[in-house]
Amino acid sequence: MVRIFNHYLHRRTLLQVCFDAGLIVAVLLLVAIGQGATTALPIAASHGLSLAGFVFLINSATGFYQPAAKRSLTETCARALFALVIALPLAYAIFTLLPSGLDQPGVLTAAAMLAVVAVVLHRGYASYAANPSQGRSKILVLGAGEAALNVANSLRAADPLAQIVGFYPGGIEASVAVPAHQLVSGERGISETALQLGVDEIVVALSERRGGAMPMRELLDCKVYGIRVLDIATHFEKNLQQISLAHVNPGWLIFGDGFNQGALRSAVKRAFDIVSSLTLLVLASPLMLVAALAVKLESRGPVFYRQERVGLNGAPFEVTKFRSMRTDAEKDGKPRWATKNDDRVTRVGKFIRRTRIDELPQLFNVLSGSMSMVGPRPERQYFVDELIAKIPYFAVRHSVKPGVTGWAQVRYEYGSTVEDAAAKLQYDLYYVKNHSLFLDALIMIETVAVVLTGRGAR
User: Fold this and answer.
1) Residue 267 DSSP SS3
2) What are the pLDDT digits (tens) for 201-239?
3) DSSP state for residue 176 in the 8-state scheme
4) Nearest-CA neighbor of 304 among 325, 334, 284, 280?
5) How far apart are CA 149 and CA 133, in angstroms?
6) Overall pTM > 0.90
7) How many alpha carbons fall within 13 Å on the CB side of residue 140?
8) CA angle 417–423–425, rounded 5-degree value
9) Could you tell me where in the chain the CATH 3.40.50.20 domains are found?
10) In this structure, is the dihedral angle defined by the CA atoms of residues 389, 393, 398 and 403, taken in order, positive or negative?
11) Which of 95, 83, 17 is nearest to 56 (CA)?
12) Does Transferase appear among the keywords (predicted)?
């Protein structure tokens, strides 16, 4: 994993993205040089970067950058075909409609399309022929109880190709939950065992750490030898990009890094919100007009749905969305969770909710300053009171503005229970702790992928 502006990324994902972008730009620059048009190099590079950005979005939507076990040939071909159907027309449009500065612009267009084909096919081949042992960190889990098993299961879910070399028994465990064949012999010290197995990382997942249960000296030796040593809370933050409610404590949150608000960060985020919301409003205005007309024609009632939500520091504000439910959705006056297949949703409402079009009027909330482009989802006061009483640290999410999209929204499917709220809070806490302009940009990019694929459709 690589940490960039407090956010953890898979090293191989970063290398894949850089390789794809570099290949596209390099091909276009070589073509421009081959035609003797050195003055067109800046244009070729800018067009190439634009195309690389679109290819990144498309490959993200197809899942080519997501860690996964070896895919079948049929699935890989289907993903590659989907990517090419979208990417090739985009490449043609970019290099045909925009000036290239070349005497023969068709050559550059053809080169761009060939570069796209090469990138997509290479990414598909790499996904199909993935080698489980290539470039993977070897991880040793210190512990053999439920916590250790939870670490292993979460790591395999986040990265199906993760190499867990075994579980080293240590400390005082209430019970052994790990299968016997996965246990590593404890006859040798943990440092000697880790070096023998070629371990890159140790995750400490002991149920009991008091009374000298943790081998501090040996763990220090491991760190001196260049082996990363993580506590269980940091493991979840690093590998799953979430703050695990089951394994975090106030001391870890208080004395660790993160939660950097600051005047500069707030000013940069506000500028980002204004520019991005204005841009999206201009681009989406025709779509919003059609959506408003469809909502009005299908059912009687207002086009927009306005409701009071809880915002920054617990202050109430009125959120605006396209109405997707019947006007009598809460005729008894009692607040209800919106469910995945809610019978109160209209036919038009199902479509605009699935494609997130119903969220577009919230861009006006962003312009007014009551919301941000990226942040935790705003909830109603009734549910906030319930969730604060039942879920620890829930109020922490109100230390930043709520967002049109967010880390929890792109990482967790739509939920309608207290348990779902707790699971999503783990991602919200990660965002509040580590938010930056870089993470905001990644979330907005991933939001595009979510809309294209319909993941988490409501």
Assistant:
1) helix
2) 999 988 766 555 678 889 999 999 999 999 889 888 988
3) -
4) 325
5) 22
6) no
7) 27
8) 100
9) 138-240
10) negative
11) 17
12) yes
